[in-house]
Design brief:
about 300 residues, 4-stranded mixed sheet, binds magnesium ion, binds adenosine-5'-triphosphate, 10-stranded mixed sheet, UDP-N-acetylmuramoyl-L-alanine:D-glutamate ligase
Length: about 300
Amino acid sequence: MIYTVTLNPALDKTVEIPSLTVDSVNRITTMRTDPGGKGINVSKVILKLGGESIAVGILGGNTGRAIRNAVEDMKIPAAFRFVEGETRTNLKVIDPVNHTNTDLNEPGITVSGEILNGLLEELLPKVKNGDIVVLSGSLPKGSPKDTYHTWTDACKKAGAKVILDADGELLLNGLSAAPYLIKPNHHELSGLMGETLETPEELEKAARRLMAQYGIAKIVVSMGGAGALYVTAEETIYAEGLKVPVKSTVGAGDSVVAALAVSEESGKSLEDTVRLSTACGAANVMCSGTQAAEYEVIEELMPKVVFHKL
Ligand SMILES: Nc1ncnc2c1ncn2[C@@H]1O[C@H](COP(=O)(O)OP(=O)(O)OP(=O)(O)O)[C@@H](O)[C@H]1O
Ligand SMILES: [Mg+2]
């Protein structure tokens, strides 16, 4: 089983306002809401890939209930813990006239270490040897700094392979517990190494250094439209980005993480993993917001993926 953990979910509300003007009344012409937060996005994509995952996370208030209901409607099994407070709504205002994107993000829930430990204690007895736990995204206010270390360590001890997708201090902290796989983008890996890394060769060297230093089995470095680098103990593959019409690049990395989790669970070869992940990332950017792409689109893109060994 794959578990996706979203400790800081959000209801993503995307609205269109032509000629958005501050200090004035603005009319919304179209709107949609999607349950979001990186782990939930991963679960949405796993579902499209025909896989199964259980979405784990912390929710609160009416917004939390709206997310739970939407996840239930999508037939994604979930194990959410409800706490005091209101889950954040992230409002994205798209202005098609001025071509701007404005984000208004709520602060969200404040948690305590006890709340997080309670959720972890609920998860651990369910985790079986060989299961996959995806830890991704930001942490809610009040979370201890070592949360991803604690969760990685505990899930590994329960027999799971941990996939960690986080940034900055959270990534660094999780690394010290040696997750099985991490998927930084090239900016996140550069930030971690304290230098600007651009070429596949530079990124591979940095990834190998991290693998040796922390004992990580696999690193996938995504590079936006330029594709991704897949580094394992045995080999490195560079996959070019697919040329597709771009609607929104938000959540492209989450689609890659979903493909990596499904590939790992089904024991796919590295080549097949590369094909599926690259197609998933590209199919995602063809969709608006954090909508998950349909499998037919992913399937059509897979044979077009170009990759080579470094
Ligand atoms: N403009 C694009 N055109 C084609 N493919 C893209 C584009 N942007 C991203 N992708 C695909 O999606 C993958 C992941 O993208 P990216 O590196 O932007 O992830 P990310 O920064 O982690 O995204 P996020 O955290 O918002 O989900 C890339 O490796 C690539 O295969
Ligand atoms: Mg990312």
